[in-house]
Design brief:
This protein is α+β, with helices and mostly antiparallel strands. 28% of the residues lie in helices and 30% in strands. The protein has helices at 28-32, 50-63, 72-87, 136-141, 167-178, 227-239, 250-254, 286-299, and strands at residues 8-11, 14-17, 35-43, 46-47, 95-103, 123-130, 143-152, 183-188, 193-196, 200-206, 212-217, 242-246, 258-263, 267-274, 277-278. Strands 7, 8, 9, 10, 11, 12, 13, 14 and 15 form a 9-stranded mixed β-sheet that branches. Helix 5 links the parallel strand 7 and strand 8. The longest helix is centred in the N-terminal third of the chain and has 16 residues, at 72-87. The radius of gyration is 20 Å and the shape is globular. It starts with 7 loop residues before the first strand and ends with a helix.
């Protein structure tokens, strides 16, 4: 039986039935993928890192020259609260994934360029779903990644914006599925690690000076600056790890002690195979388990 999806959605300030319809066919988000989004986690009605996500949403909007309302942060925060209440996802035991989508708005004419001298009203949408538990096998055995055939160009200004143009990511997931893996890892045009389709990548490794490092691709590696990524870089010193951001190679990932992915909703998930070969012992390691547990305690996500 197919998933019926959320019972309700929030569209431009109003709670509406989830079955729709909701949008004009002339909406540029539908026609061109001319929009942005954020995905957040809400536990007991409290959204994790809401200011950080809304700041990144505005940065993505600025990058595409989408003019957001001055009070968009207030409107979206109130909309999230109203939608979670409507869906019954604001109770003490509730755990929800929330998606904010913003398109440039409706413009009936054809063409790529946004109109000049016309005021387009952005379409604002919020959706919410219960967070499904991570499959036990993912935590017990870890995930398998493959390198995606699509390369990321660090000079491309779009790669650091969270846009609704996701065809590359869909293609990458299809590649992963065909290879029997759970996700795909993008590489840069020079062959360095970038990011997975919905998560940043980290590896735990031994440094030449004997210190254990927590390493992740730098912001120059065509990645999205994830909020959980930022938390991990702040967390590492308190855990006894030296945080490192840099240009990492697939060989360094293959030779790492441990590896994991991180995202706002899934949290921290172990990665134990890359391109068909085991990483470390081939099982989730102690640093990965500690990072996941510490984050769950810090944000009350467990």
């Amino acid at each position: 039986m197919s998933d019926p999806g959320p019972r309700y959605v929030w569209v431009d300030g109003a709670i509406r039935p989830g079955a729709g319809p909701h949008l004009s066919v002339a909406d540029r988000g539908f026609q061109l993928g001319d929009g942005i989004f954020e995905t957040l986690r809400a536990k007991s009605g409290h959204v994790t890192e809401l200011p950080e996500h809304l700041a990144r949403l505005r940065r993505s909007a600025d990058g595409l020259a989408i003019e957001l309302p001055a009070d968009v942060e207030t409107r979206l925060a109130a909309g999230i609260a109203d939608l979670l209440a409507a869906e019954g996802l604001d109770g003490a035991a509730a755990d929800a994934s929330v998606r904010i989508t913003v398109s440039r708005g409706v413009w009936a004419s054809r063409g790529l360029l946004p109109p000049v001298g016309e005021v387009l009203v952005p379409t604002l949408v919020i959706q919410a779903w219960p967070v499904a538990p991570v499959p036990a096998g993912h935590l017990e055995h870890g995930l398998s990644l493959v390198a995606c055939s699509i390369r990321r160009d660090p000079a491309n200004p779009i790669v650091s914006l969270k846009t609704t143009s996701r065809a590359d990511y869909v293609y990458a997931r299809i590649e992963a599925r065909r290879a029997g893996a759970e996700d795909a890892l993008f590489l840069t045009t020079s062959g360095y690690l970038s990011e997975a389709t919905t998560a940043n990548i980290f590896l735990v490794r031994d440094a030449p000076d004997g210190v254990i490092e927590l390493a992740t691709p730098s912001l120059d590696c065509a990645i999205l600056p994830g909020t959980t990524r930022s938390w991990l870089l702040r967390w590492a010193p308190s855990a006894g790890l030296r945080p490192v951001e840099g240009w990492l190679t697939p060989d360094e990932l293959a030779a790492a002690r441990e590896a994991f992915m991180c995202s706002s909703v899934a949290g921290i998930l172990p990665v134990t195979r890359f391109n068909g070969h085991p990483i470390g012992t081939g099982l989730p390691g102690p640093w990965t388990r500690r990072a996941r547990a510490d984050r769950e305690v810090f944000f009350g996500e467990g």
